[in-house]
């Protein structure tokens, strides 16, 4: 790899460290009674925000309480992500394109597994409702959208990357860009 | 024909004369409603008002918060009167707030609101208000809009000259409108007034951080009627000015007998000097019984302490402490200009408004420029002419109160001629007048007693409305009127009805209040002895014939909701904790047949309703505040068995699979 490419890869791996300090994802809920909105922030190892209020409201539809300790992901993710960053830094240090490809592959796998896991949790919360719930709307489920907005009864639910997530995605795209660039260079040489 | 002509000769001039005479009827002051009034007072839905106005509820005993310029009622804050709407004065926690040396007094006559001040500016921390009848002063916390403290004033009859505060809220004052013998005096005849009746100018120290009040000292002054007061500011900040009437010392048919003298007095008190005397150990502690009631935000409960004595200084013993300034006739308001240099007294039966100069007062004291014929009660009386800066001539009839704007103008209310008169402080020249509907008492400019008034509006606080609103039988509303004072001519913008009598009001820029607002109480900081922190802790405990129900409320159930084992003859205490931790989710509580009122419990708060069931029956109880979609389901039953039954105490709530916590 070119020196410039290696620097960019290093920067992109370093940018991902921000995931430890910034929220990755956000869930936004808006309703007539909550003009100021309710929200949850998903971090690498935690969920913060109006969890108590959201749990309080969700009991009417029989949704399970959201409890941070229920998520084994939060215990594992900080280590997994540290490993991914380490591979990125190593790829920059090593300078071989193969390592960059491995790293990018890891990032893609991480994104796919992460979003799938997120979707499954959303599905579980949205469908696995208590039969004793006070409010039952036939055919209705309360699964929030994976990305974007969806109306759930009186709430407009939004699911979007938060600042940390945006930085990680941008860093991954940078790495992808460098990889494409380096592959083209190699092809020209051949 | 001739006779007809003759007749017309006589009639025609008569008709013409009568027409001319009718045309000569003097015109009334014209109603000057601003053409843009609707725009100026319109606050669009969802938008906020520019100012909070805190108006006394007068004989309702409460305080009302309004938004200006819309005139919308935002909240009635219970202070001196029981308030069934939220259980104030009915719940076990709030009952001690209304305790006095006369026992439980659930009403008072609220008069003057006073915002706390820092450097002579309203700081938005507390609001003080006086109870006139059973002399008291209350302090309201403006972050919670709750009455936090009420202190009774001993040796005072009618706490009217109150609760005006000094420049940094070091002290607030109270003084007697009906002089009485001091509390420690034995039984005396009423007509021994001149000998036995005294005034007690009371200085209450306010804690700088917490706002708590304590009677620091009472200055024993001649037995006149002390009407109103204002503290000096800037140059005059060490002084407090009280108006007095009935210097005749009449004790019967006051309307005649207290209106004989041409001049009564303004009493100038050097409070800084009094404070220094107290620090030197001067004065005497005299037995006195008065209640001091304090609300604790952590236990959500009030305690009432009966105080035992008070420090008194007899003003005759301390020259230089108090001076009298003659003032025409039966003065009502005593108001100080923003720079502290002028004090304006309004003789309600006088033809002029005298404006006194603080500088001249100090010079007159320096020169001992006293009237010798009336050295009343051993207190020096300064000469009127030596303290006078000038008089506002022909202001109108019945001048009462003066407030100031930020442009050098003063506004005086005229009770008898029912108008506000605008005049220039420096020249005392009248600029404008505007009618009020009807019989204005106090008036209020936002920040009108500050060093730098906010200005913009003056609010007229009227005693009579007659035909101004849709009639409501013999008892009509009283009202406030909002007037624009930004131009040379005052312009009426809005009439709005008020609760009780809007005796006096003070207004403050909204952001000074909104920035401190408490949205709910933190459950983990709730130290109420009967609080529950979660539904798991709810229980029912019997001790003899006292039964304590530790109950919780959260949308949408009360826990426990089935209670058995109560017997006739028991006293049941429902201690309800609102477990919600969100803004604007109060829960209420009521039980059939309770001889008190409902409870309204804010999130994180605990309140107690005492209930003595009167029969063996099943009694429903329920949440009274529409809290959620399943509010109607938020109910339960309590079973009351005969006195001799052996039903054990039991309580439950249906298995709630949804509540994981």
UniProtKB/TrEMBL annotation, chain A:
Keywords noted in UniProt: Membrane, Transmembrane, Transmembrane helix
Residues that span the membrane, as ranges: 7-28, 76-93, 100-121, 163-180
Domain of life according to the entry: Bacteria
Protein name: Copper chaperone NosL
Automatic annotation (TrEMBL), chain B:
Cellular localisation: Cell envelope
Pfam families in the cross-refs: nos_propeller
Cell division is among the record's keywords: no
Record key words, sorted: Copper, Metal-binding, Signal
PROSITE patterns attached to this UniProt entry: COX2 (PS00078), PROKAR_LIPOPROTEIN (PS51257)
GO CC, alphabetical: cell envelope
Signal peptide positions (record): 1-22
Entry annotated with the keyword Acyltransferase: no
InterPro entries given in the database record: Copper_CuA, Cupredoxin, N2O_reductase_N, Nitrous_oxide_Rdtase_Sec-dep, Nos_propeller, NosZ/Cyto_c_oxidase_sub2, WD40/YVTN_repeat-like_dom_sf
A single MF term (Gene Ontology): copper ion binding
Name this protein carries in UniProt: Nitrous-oxide reductase
Source organism of this protein record: Arcticibacter pallidicorallinus
């Amino acid at each position: 790899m070119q020196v410039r490419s290696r620097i960019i890869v290093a920067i992109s791996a370093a940018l991902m460290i921000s995931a430890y300090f910034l929220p990755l994802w956000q869930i936004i809920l808006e309703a007539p009674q909550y003009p100021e909105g309710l929200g949850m922030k998903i971090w690498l190892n935690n969920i913060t925000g109006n969890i108590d209020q959201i749990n309080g409201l969700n009991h009417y539809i029989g949704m399970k309480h959201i409890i941070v300790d229920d998520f084994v992901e939060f215990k594992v993710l900080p280590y997994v992500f540290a490993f991914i960053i380490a591979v990125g830094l190593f790829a920059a240090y090593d300078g071989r394109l193969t390592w960059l490809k491995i790293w990018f592959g890891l990032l893609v796998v991480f994104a796919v597994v992460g979003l799938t896991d997120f979707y499954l949790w959303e599905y579980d919360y949205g469908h696995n409702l208590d039969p004793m719930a006070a409010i039952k709307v036939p055919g209705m489920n309360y699964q929030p959208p994976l990305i974007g907005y969806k109306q759930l009864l009186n709430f407009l639910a939004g699911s979007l990357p938060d600042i940390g997530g945006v930085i990680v995605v941008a860093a991954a795209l940078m790495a992808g860009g460098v990889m494409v660039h380096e592959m083209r260079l190699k092809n020209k040489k051949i | 024909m001739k006779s007809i002509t003759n007749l017309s000769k006589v009639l025609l001039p008569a008709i013409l004369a009568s027409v001319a005479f009718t045309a000569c009827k003097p015109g009334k002051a014209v109603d000057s409603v601003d053409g843009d009034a609707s725009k100026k007072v319109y606050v669009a839905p969802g938008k906020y008002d520019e100012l909070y106005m805190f108006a006394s509820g007068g004989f309702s005993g409460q305080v009302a918060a309004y938004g200006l310029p819309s005139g919308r009622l935002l909240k009635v804050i219970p202070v001196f009167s029981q308030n069934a709407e939220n259980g104030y004065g009915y719940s076990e926690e709030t009952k001690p707030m209304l305790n006095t040396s006369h026992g439980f007094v659930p009403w008072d006559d609220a008069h003057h609101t006073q915002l706390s001040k820092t450097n002579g500016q309203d700081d938005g921390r507390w609001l003080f208000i006086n109870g006139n009848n059973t002399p008291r002063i209350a302090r309201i916390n403006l972050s919670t809009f709750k009455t936090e403290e009420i202190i009774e004033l001993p040796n005072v009859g009618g706490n009217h000259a109150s609760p005006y505060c000094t420049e940094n809220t070091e002290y607030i004052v109270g003084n007697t409108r009906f002089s009485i013998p001091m509390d420690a005096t034995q039984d005396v005849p009423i007509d021994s007034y001149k000998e036995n009746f005294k005034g007690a100018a009371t200085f209450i120290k306010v804690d700088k951080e917490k706002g708590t009040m304590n009677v620091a000292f009472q200055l024993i002054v001649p037995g006149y009627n002390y009407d109103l007061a204002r503290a000096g500011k800037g140059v005059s900040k060490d002084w407090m000015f009280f108006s007095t009437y009935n210097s005749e010392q009449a004790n019967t048919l006051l309307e005649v007998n207290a209106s004989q003298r041409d001049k009564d007095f303004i009493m100038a008190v050097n409070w800084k000097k009094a404070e220094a005397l107290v620090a030197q150990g001067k004065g005497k502690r005299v037995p006195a019984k008065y209640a001091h009631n304090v609300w604790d935000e952590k236990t959500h409960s009030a305690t009432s302490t009966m105080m035992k004595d008070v420090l008194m200084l007899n003003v005759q013993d301390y020259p230089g402490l108090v001076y009298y300034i003659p003032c025409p006739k039966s003065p009502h308001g005593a108001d100080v200009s923003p720079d502290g240099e002028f004090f304006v007294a309004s003789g309600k039966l006088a033809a002029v408004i005298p404006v006194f100069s603080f500088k001249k007062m100090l010079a007159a004291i320096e020169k001992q420029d006293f009237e010798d014929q009336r050295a009343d009660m051993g207190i020096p009386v300064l000469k009127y002419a030596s303290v006078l800066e000038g008089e506002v001539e022909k202001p109108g009839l019945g001048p009462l109160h003066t407030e100031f704007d930020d442009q050098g103008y003063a506004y005086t209310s005229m009770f008898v001629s029912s108008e506000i008169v605008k005049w220039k402080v420096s020249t005392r020249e009248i600029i404008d007048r505007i009618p009020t509907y009807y019989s204005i008492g106090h008036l209020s400019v936002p920040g009108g007693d500050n060093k730098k008034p906010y200005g913009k509006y003056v609010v007229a606080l009227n005693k009579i409305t007659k035909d101004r609103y849709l009639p409501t039988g013999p008892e009509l509303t009283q009202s406030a009127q909002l007037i624009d004072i930004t131009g040379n001519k005052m312009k009426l913008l809005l009439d709005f009805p008020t609760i009780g009598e809007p005796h006096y009001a003070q207004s403050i820029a909204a952001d000074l209040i909104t920035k401190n607002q408490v949205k709910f109480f933190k459950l983990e900081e709730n130290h109420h002895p009967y609080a529950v922190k979660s539904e798991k802790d709810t229980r029912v405990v019997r001790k003899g014939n006292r039964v304590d129900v530790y109950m919780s409320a959260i949308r949408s159930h009360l826990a426990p909701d089935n209670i058995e084992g109560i017997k006739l003859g028991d006293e049941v205490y429902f201690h309800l904790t609102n477990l919600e931790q969100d803004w604007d989710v109060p829960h209420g509580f009521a039980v059939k047949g309770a001889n008190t009122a409902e409870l309204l419990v804010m999130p994180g708060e605990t309140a107690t309703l005492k209930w003595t069931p009167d029969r063996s029956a099943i009694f429903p109880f329920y949440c009274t505040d529409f809290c959620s979609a399943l509010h109607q389901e938020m109910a339960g039953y309590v079973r009351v068995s005969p006195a001799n039954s052996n039903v054990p105490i039991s309580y439950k709530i249906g298995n709630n699979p949804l509540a994981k916590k």
